[in-house]
Amino acid sequence: MERPLILVSNDDGYKAKGINCLVRVLMEFGDVVVVAPHTGRSGKGCAITSEVPIKVWEVAAEPGLQVYACTGTPSDCVKLACHSVVPRTPSLVIGGINHGDNSAVNAHYSGTMGVVLEGCMKGIPSIAFSLCSHDEDADFSPTFPYIRRIVAEVLQRGLPAGSCLNVNFPDAPSYAGVKVCRQAIGSWVNEWEAHTHPRGGQWWWLTGEFVIEDSDEGADRVALNNNYVAITPTKIDFTDYSLLAEMQGWGL
After folding, report:
1. Which residues does 163 contact at the CB level (< 8 Å), separation at least 6?
2. Which of 46, 129, 201, 243 is 20 to 30 Å from the Cα of 172, by its Cα?
3. Which residues 6+ apart lie within 8 Å of 194 measured at CB?
């Protein structure tokens, strides 16, 4: 019987600890192909490269694993992998493990989510995994049992067409449990820091702090704050169906 084929990418680059830890867990479930950026691409969301050519090259191989580096964005990696790298349609597309929180509206900026949204658009069950720590040497081991359980469930059950999973882990040695959540309400404030250039004029550095405007325990960022693993089912269809119905009566 043919083993599942799992396509993996991220936005931290193929050398990041998170993706390399993830690969070792996923190899328990099937053959793994990694196509990931050659360097960090955090915050790229679903961006694609259209103005310049991109390159992809093999950097490592062993039984059950091939690793490729790519000069493109996370979404580029999935597009190119499905077009020219993988030998057949993957059973799963997985992004991560990301170094940093991708809950709430952060999911819209995330290159890790760009990976799974691209996989989802191609009709492949897709899962994003993120740890709420930016430490390059973060301890990912508490996430492994949960990743195994989630991957096993999705391989067995699949996911509805147009839906993917955004999974976030607290930065903690153990977790209180799992909650299936909605996206929390929150926003970034004080986002830009101004500096004076030595040769004149101003330049700006993106910074800021994230403010949660939500207290519902069913919201992903709130669940994380309470030490729960937060799983947020996410759709690629942005349509607001309630507003769509209301607008039918606008007389436009």
Report:
1. 120, 233, 234, 235, 236
2. 46
3. 202, 203, 204
Extents of the domains making up the chain: 5-183+217-238
Q: Under a CB-based contact definition with an 8 Å cutoff, are residues 138 and 171 in contact? A: yes
* Cβ neighbours for 251, distance < 8 A, ≥ 6 positions apart: none
CATH of domain 5-183+217-238: 3.40.1210.10
Identify the CA nearest to 5 among candidates 31, 24, 29, 23: 31
Tens of pLDDT, residues 140-184:
999 999 999 999 999 999 999 999 999 999 999 999 999 999 998
247: part of which helix (H) or strand (E)?
A: helix 241-247
The CA–CA distances, whole Å, from 48 to 15, 74, 90, 91, 147 equal 21, 8, 21, 23, 28
pTM beyond cutoff 0.85: yes
177-236 pLDDT per residue, tens: 999 999 988 887 888 888 988 888 888 888 888 788 888 888 999 999 999 999 999 999
- Tell me the Cα Rg of the chain: 19
Place of tokens 């867990």: 25
Round to whole Å and give the CA distance between 78 and 36: 8
Phi, psi dihedrals of residue 203, rounded to the nearest 5°:
-130, 160
* Run of H or E residues at 222: helix 220-225
